[in-house]
Amino acid sequence: MNIVIAYALPHAQSLEDLDVPEGTTVEQAVHMSHILEKYPDINLSVNKVGVFAKLVKLDHVLHEGDRVEIYRALPGKARDPYAVEDKKARIRAKKEKSGSEDDISAG
Prior knowledge:
alpha+beta
């Protein structure tokens, strides 16, 4: 049966067509594709995998035409050191405001 193994980097993507036997799991297909040798940064114990954008486990059995996707961790956004405190303050203010409106509507 034919499947595709997909892995995307910021400026490139790898799509590998593969012919695998019935009953092949995601993990077996990834190993058969040799993509782990091409991209040694892939670690199946860390990177999540999916089939057509739906997360699956490595022991998921594939079907004809499936596209196995290997997801990489996206870099975290640099945060302003005060952003967390600012967000907490906005949440507190919103709760206080909604709490006072409840008091008015109850009376």
